[in-house]
């Protein structure tokens, strides 16, 4: 396979520290040759890490795309509302595209991106990384083998984790639907995609309920200051006390959350950044608007029904699922890598234990990048076509509309309306 080259647009956490790392781990397969990033410190650090010369470092993506085509593909890893223009420009310029999810919070832009991929005959791969996890690949295989007969119902839960939710959706970049996207799209378009994949049928009806119930001013303890480091008297009993998480919680380092606070993650720099920076704010005194819990019910054309729950109020960041069929049921825990199959006829239970790395969505990030690189380098088919990503994104937006309007959405009519 020839080495595939890439240009990175947006050197943030996912772009610079997750997807691009595949180039460092597999240099014979993949190399990042150009970068566009407005933050000078991030741009220079990334360029140094990947050996990118000065003339291939750009402040804005527009500058990158003004050049002659520089690479085989472009990785678009900007914020949610900044994907559309560079994705379209990249495809027009001749690049295949890896786009961070969600594609866009705007329905018309999502559809347009799918149409342009078809028009220009480009690979547009959206980062629905769960399809690449050993866990969901195995579940898909078991369903295809009819191990539980005909699939009838799915029960799926995303446990966001109290600490992850506070970092990303109360203090962080995805806290306001108006500036990024609704929670059900930003965090859970993964899950809508998985439900669509497992059900193997088109969605026909959607309803949803949920709210921002806890992380708001009215629930602030008495005398809680605007910033944790402004002498908060509740620090010993508050699970969201910022210095404790960013200095002591192992996930702050493992999952890279600390680099959202400061690029130079020494204790001194972390404390200084928390003193008046966004990640040091009291979780009850932020300007967040996205829900902290939501339930979605779905019906598919083949009469499979699914219920999905997203909640911030869990100790773990995990996904758990239950698949119920005519001859048995499957229970699964993605993080633990455990799948249990229960047979109705024999009463036997089989337990499958998978190797699931802790980092990178349990190994999904690396598997997705390998698939994307080989789609370009070897012409291999991928697991996520642009048209399928469009459908699952629209399911998430329909769920949000159902939540806000208190109604059941007829999904085919919803799509035709757009």
From TrEMBL:
Residues 140-363 form the Gfo/Idh/MocA-like oxidoreductase C-terminal domain. Pfam families: GFO_IDH_MocA (PF01408), GFO_IDH_MocA_C (PF02894). InterPro entries: Gfo/Idh/MocA-like_OxRdtase_C (IPR004104), Gfo/Idh/MocA-like_OxRdtase_N (IPR000683), Gfo/Idh/MocA_Oxidoreductases (IPR051450), NAD(P)-bd_dom_sf (IPR036291). One of its GO terms (molecular function) is nucleotide binding. SUPFAM superfamilies: Glyceraldehyde-3-phosphate dehydrogenase-like, C-terminal domain, NAD(P)-binding Rossmann-fold domains. Residues 6-127 form the Gfo/Idh/MocA-like oxidoreductase N-terminal domain. Belongs to the Gfo/Idh/MocA family. This is Gfo/Idh/MocA family oxidoreductase.
